[in-house]
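Record minuted for everyone:
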Amino acid sequence: MAKKAKTQKGSNGVHYKMGWSERMMMIITYFVYSIFAFVCFYPFYYILINSISNNDLSARGKVLFIPLEIHFNNFVSVAKINGLLQAATVSLGRTVIGATLTVITAGFLGFMFTRDTMWGRKFWYRFVVATMYFNAGIIPWYLTMRNLHLTNNFWGYIFPLVVQPFNIILCKTFVESTPKALQEAAEIDGAGTLTVFFKVILPIIKPILATVAIFAAVGQWNAFQDTLLLVTTPKLYTLQFVLYQYITQANSLKAIINSQMSTESIAASLAHSQTQTSIRMTVTIVVVAPIMCVYPFFQRYFTSGIMIGAVKG
């Protein structure tokens, strides 16, 4: 007797029978995507288990899939390093302020580039888009920042990243997909440009603004090259720059951290003494964990934000 085909419920609620070939295709699809998910997830998992495992075993590459001899001394030791809290505050400040200004600027310029009343609209839009493909290079950029007194200045983190062409294009396309009649009705009632933007456009473009906010926040949080080029004052160092220093100076940091530990604690557990690997893994977790915790809350806006803005109705 032939085997019965498996019954599957479709997205429209109608039940249909799956044939053998469809079941095999589904199994293969799940298998392939499971591999992709594992490849994406494993690096973060690997860093986490090595940061909480026996430091000696971790340094020798013995920790691969499960943590061994779990302890949290690495996080306690790293938290005591001078300047870490200050760097975290700077990173948080530039992320919040920078992302907020980027979202407002992208939304407003995206809206203005759809307005026929804007003077030189096509020229300015093309001028902004052209900056995606051409730039002067690092040295002219540094000279410009120095002439604007943005070296060793917190606002040097903010101003260069406020106007981002890609985000403006996303917002412009999204605004163009919204009903034009809403703007016209508001203007008939006497609303000005700013009123139309804040009262009419802003509430209906929240999905794309949330998407831009994540792009801007991740970019600000992960940035460290601008600190390397513009900042020499330790109080303005970002968390990512501190991570960069820790990775490049792991040997000296190992000696510093171990010297901060008491003689009794070292004698009690040599396995908890700091190594290059433990420092790198622990600080990476400290830096990556905050943005990873925020990311899932906004991830659901990505599909609706980008896809709606990419299709003109």
Summary: The longest strand covers residues 6-9.
